[in-house]
Amino acid sequence: MRIILAGPRGFCAGVNMAIESLELAIRFYGTPVYVYHEIVHNKWVVERFRKLGVVFVDDLAEVPEGVHLLYSAHGVPPEVRRTATQRRLKTVDATCPLVTKVHNEAIRFAQAGCTIILIGHAGHDEVAGTMGEAPEAIVLVQTLEDVDRLTTPQSAPLAYLTQTTLSVDDAKQIIRRLRQRFPEIIGPAREDICYATQNRQEAVRVLSHRADVVLVVGSGNSSNSLRLAELARSTGVPAYLVDGPSEINLGWFSGDESVVITAGASAPEAVVQECLGLLQERFHATVESCVVREEQVRFLLPEPLRSMAAAQ
Ligand code: SF4
Questions:
Q1: What is the pLDDT of residues 86-144, one digit of tens each?
Q2: Cα of 304 from ligand 1 centre, angstroms
Q3: Is the pTM of this model over 0.70?
Q4: Rounded distance, CA 169 to CA 227, Å?
Q5: Catalytic: 126?
Q6: Nearest atom in ligand 1 to 13's CA
Q7: For the chain, how big is the Rg over CA atoms in Å?
Q8: Element (DSSP H or E) covering residue 4
Q9: What are phi and psi of 109, to 5 degrees?
Q10: Any residues with Cβ below 6 Å from ligand 1, and which?
């Protein structure tokens, strides 16, 4: 077996920032620290923090008044910020700046009187946060058929935005269809699909051609991990999304194939190495690292954690 380790893979700058923020919050404030939604969409990361005394909630009614609360990397709607203020919560905003960018675009387009078509997945935390910025102005579309069914006010100008972790190819198709139906539609100045999503998809697109099987390490509720598995399958290669080594079915392999391993932006490298170790042990696999694109992105920690860390 030949293993090709795709690069870039795993943690992005937003996930690194959110995880470091939560580690510092535990250190500076003590536990329990409360987090609105999963800090990032990964089972291992969430379980590790639970064991350290972090409480993840989906409803601020579960949070006692006056305690520390972090917002996850996926961001929150303004309604949640208002409720947190009413409950006198001491909040730390670990929203990824690239998600905040989409929120700001939504606010800007809504203030300009636009009807905003948001391309994204219903129910995703990020989509709920973005839609909350201008609920009356935003319409969600998920598919080409949704675009065909769209009825929009004739008078209002139209704009589109996208979730940060979409399939680049699917989003392009939907935007093309939007432009065909609504030639006047405007979009963001810079693409909303983030650099990390694009780079991990690019690596899978390039390396799938050398693979008999693609293994994506990531959780089932991680949008960008799901997209990596879908992308590999679309190139005709069997692809499996696994949360860790216990989910690997050794029957997927005969032992003489090329296996590309990648990981979603919220999947820890330690889990990738455990999966790799299992295949090396069972199939005496050789390992080659293939970095398709270098990444040097880092995001600042949110205040007040940044100042507190600097003062240490
Ligand atoms: S995947 Fe992209 S948008 Fe999401 S946290 Fe990472 S860098 Fe930010």
A1: 999 999 999 999 999 999 999 999 999 999 999 999 999 999 999 999 999 999 999 99
A2: 21
A3: yes
A4: 10
A5: yes
A6: 7
A7: 21
A8: strand 2-7
A9: -65, -40
A10: 12-15, 73, 96, 98-99, 164-165, 194, 196-197, 224, 265
